[in-house]
Write a structure and sequence with these properties.
Rossmann fold, two-stranded antiparallel sheet, 3 domains, 601 residues, alpha/beta, 7-stranded mixed β-sheet
Length: 601
Amino acid sequence: MSEVSYKPFIFMLMSLATAALLTYLVREITHKFGFVAKPKLDRWHKRPTAMFGGVAIFLATVSIYVAFVPKTSQSLVIMAGSSVLFIVGLIDDILHIKPYQKLVGQIIGVAMIVGYGLVLPWTNVDVLNIAITAFWLIGITNAINLLDNMDGLSAGIAAIAAISLAIGFGASGQFYELLFLSVFIGALIGFLIFNFNPASIFMGDCGSMFVGFLLASSVLMTEVGGRSRGIVPILAVPALILFVPIFDTTFVTLLRKLWGRKASQGGRDHTSHRLVALGLSERKAVLLLYGLALFGGLLSLFVRELKAIQSLALIAVFTVILTLIGVYLAKVKVYQEQEEELALQNHAGFGFLVSLSHKRRIFEVLLDACLITLAYYASYLLIFGAFETSEAWGLFIKSLPFLIVLKLFAFLIVGVYRGIWRYTSVRDLFSFSKGVALGSVLSVLALLLFYRFEFFSRAVFVVDALILFFALAGSRLAFRFFRQLLPSGNPGEGRKILIYGAGDGGEMILRELNNNPEWNYSPVGFVDDDPLKQGKVINGLKVYGGNGSLVKICRENEIEEILLSFRRISPDKLNEVRDTCRELNVSLKRAFLKIETIDFE
């Protein structure tokens, strides 16, 4: 193994061990002197937790860097600027300075970086590049700070982003930069040993501001951004590497503004908090965000190897997925009902946006326009390969406007926009197929009329129709997929119920219960007298056999309520179920169109 291959790992391990030791010492010292973060209503932790973990990250990174890493002028400037941010954060942790005072410290760090000449080469105008770089450095620094809202989240996401960046350094042959970042990665992992759920120490502002600024500054050193490549990789790669903090900060800022809350104030409305509100544990929520960060990092490495248009298409697909996730998470209630009513009363614009979001029609049209474009591009790519420099590109460009307009018109005609996403069914899939078929026919007729369909490929339109149908159906089924992937509420909470009848009515009731967690029901399973259904599974719930076993089933599963799912039931069977419920002190209700209590008398 060559020196180039093992040195980064050696430095990372040295930094990891140093950070772990320093974190342990800082934790003990802060507990001894009472420097702990006490639980608050707008914070997530439930017990006093040691602070100043950022001190360990900073000291480990600086000490190993100074002692072992070959110095470059770029890494020295970045380390100096990040040290300024560490000092500003440390002062804030101790004295709780004003936001504008922290901003002044951030501007000083930005001035050091930009003054040296490190900027994002996103335009051909130097002044504009400087402004964009300043926004990038301050934005990512504060994004990492805002992301530090759950055990292990900020440090873990930063470590994943740094690893993605380090791989890019290695691929570009930037060995000294790779060593520099390896030390930083080791410090983050060493701290994460004590910060992962359940955390025994927090990094504090001194840690989050140091980590965020160093990470954002390191992007400026790399060729991963594609300084010699097209504009798309230059724009996309840094954003993909750090997309989790960017997404969370944008998401929270927009929603807080809509609710009339200050974007800078604390709160339990971050992406991680909403995942927990959906039923995930804190650890699973953090691990899920780790996975998304890892996916973004891998995508950033993939994008830089593609052509500009292909990169743009891939990023557009990723953006669509993120948008759907954002819309779904925005539906999760994190504010009290009184706050919602007050926001609606005091912010007329917010009320308009809520109504617009509920109807979702404008959003659906814009989404479908994007899906039509992506499906058409993908069909050309599959048929012709890399076609951007061929005659097929001209055909694609001049025909795309016709397809967007005519296919949206077809969707409108067949009723694609009449449905509600959460209730998408097989009948809706037939509407989608009719809309896609009609849109394809209209598109072909238009191209035949205007261009006599010369040089256009019939195979492209067949493939395009198939891709568009699956994209359209997938986008509408996304919310149902999210509900299956993520629990709809805290598992185990609510009244444990048994649905009597494992037919269509029972399945419909289960869907309604899952769609309305505020009803506070926790379905345990089905019971049915049909022996052919016994042992089957419906939407993840077991079907128990009836015929005298109801008492045993209720006792074993601690059932509190039974819902009858069918309208007609024989008097003898109804009396039998009623007697069982009376014996076990279990409520009995009929759930047909609406839930009604059945009297025992």
